Amino acid sequence: MFMTNGNFQLKHIFGLKIRDLRMSKDLSFQELSEKTGLSVSYLSEIEKGKKYPKGDKILALAEALKVTYDYLVSLRVSKKLEPIINLMQSDFFKEFPLETFGLDPQKVIELLSQAPEKINAFITSVITIARNYEMRGEHFYFAALRSYQELHDNYFPEIEEAASQFRKEHGALLAVPVSVNALKDILNKTYGIKLDRRTLSTYESLRDLRCYYNAKEKKVLLNQGLTREQESFLLGREIAFQYLDLAHRPMETPPQRGDSFEAILSNYKASYFSAALILPEEKILKDVHKVAASPSLDTSMMVRLIDKYRATPEMLMQRLTNMLPKHFKIKNLFFLRFVGTDNFSFYNLTKELHLARFHNPHANGVNEHYCRRWLAIRMIKQLRTSSRIGKANAITSGAQISKYHGTEDDYLCLSLAFPNVSNPAESMSVTIGFYIDDDLRKKVRFIQDPKIKSRVVNTTCERCSWTECEDRIAPPVHVEKEARREDIWKALEEIRMKGEVVN
Q1: Residue 503 domain boundaries
Q2: What is the mean pLDDT of the chain?
Q3: N vs C: which end of the chain shows fewer Cβ within 10 Å?
Q4: Per residue in 364-423, pLDDT tens?
Q5: What's the CA gap between 417 and 395, in Å, rounded?
């Protein structure tokens, strides 16, 4: 991971100042070269932050640019360079792994220096938007993680290989389903880590935490009430932190702070590894091929796969987002996780992934009402109702063809809904959606099954113009605003046209 250090910052600050002074005095590289006796190529290296000159050369630059030697070697900069320097010295720039995304830190600085006034406006705008939408640093890190997943089609062969190798090293993991006791024994015997199922439950404020790793005592603290499947995932993930030697990591689950992108990325890699242990690539692929080849859809097959591998619903759906792009070349898909309570007015989209393009719906921070015609939301509502009247509240499954209103976009959506065992007041759903085209129809035979109902959907009520919707719970305020803007432009255009006729 790239980390800025004092020497890196000093060279770049010096280079930015030289470039700023040269440009302000309207000097070309050649002209500054003639004034200082330094070559054009050397001056270019200085401005790019690749070279830091010795004292005599700094003095020559100071005299040519009509500033003091002390000013050039200090950290003081002009007002228009301040936002760039602040960004370089910020925690975000220090911690964000530019190289993970194929970005050269020096090139980024060079790009930023080309138009500092515009960068100033951009940075200020981002900060303002973040404050208005109550966004914290971790929001940016999680957005970056999604981009990282999408960049690799959410498939990482090195982690798949590591999980496969680990199973071979520990024969007890070759069986399906993977045993919780086998994972516990490996943690204890291989890494000296013990389990504690008591401590977390003694703190009311930690009720929603699933686990915490006490590194000092080498203990995994598990909350009471976790399912067998959740325990397996958490233990498999702790094995991953140890086996993959992921030093920068969150200790608690779910992570409560996004201290660095590396910690969030490590958490993702460990989760991926755990899922690959519990749902081995070669075995889950056989099951997926069998399901895709069936001419009819049995939605309960998803629950049967969960039972077969003793996986959580989310783990199964996330695993599909690993397998399908790589092995089926189905890349035009999305994954969504909704959470709902007995307040049927609001549902939160708490996790999302979009491959190939930015599908709808996606998370928004403006408290809009997601379309109730989505299967994922209807299933949460049904679970909450069942819970209220004391009926069984287990995993449910379903399928739907979602047809976006006003577009040609149709999606095959497979959803699972289940209670949140960490918080009985909540129910959750996970959905994987596939953009329907001729290629998908060839690869997934059951898509033609007439039992799969089609429904017109949209993103949120506030952005939907469909007048026949019986599930609307909020007026189409954004549609109304857009219509008013259109009326204004039509009226102004009419005035302009009349003026041209008169003239």
Answers
A1: 475-503
A2: 86
A3: C
A4: 555 789 999 999 999 999 999 988 887 766 899 999 999 999 888 999 999 999 998 878
A5: 6
DSSP for 80-105 reads: GGHHHHHHHHSHHHHHS-GGGGT--H
* 1 located within any domain: no
Three-state DSSP at 320 gives: helix
Burial class (CB in 10 A: 0-12, 13-18, 19+), 1: middle
Contact 321, 154 (CB under 8 A): yes
Give CA torsion, residues 97, 101, 107, 110, to 10 deg: -70
What does each C-alpha distance from 332 to 288, 297, 412, 442, 501 come to in angstroms?
A: 17, 20, 11, 14, 51
C-alpha to C-alpha distance for 200 and 457, rounded to whole angstroms: 42
* Last residue within a domain, chosen from 278, 298, 318: 278
Q: How far is CA 312 from the centre of its chain?
A: 20
Q: In angstroms, how far is CA 173 from the centroid of its own chain?
A: 30
Structure tokens at 424: 């009985």
Of 260, 259, 271, nearest to 156 (Cα)? 271
């302009």: which residue's tokens?
496
Can you tell me the distance from the alpha carbon of 155 to that of 321, in angstroms, rounded to the nearest whole number? 8
* 468 and 491 assigned to the same domain: no
Angle in degrees, 0-180, between the axes of helices 105-113 and 82-89, rounded to the nearest 10: 160
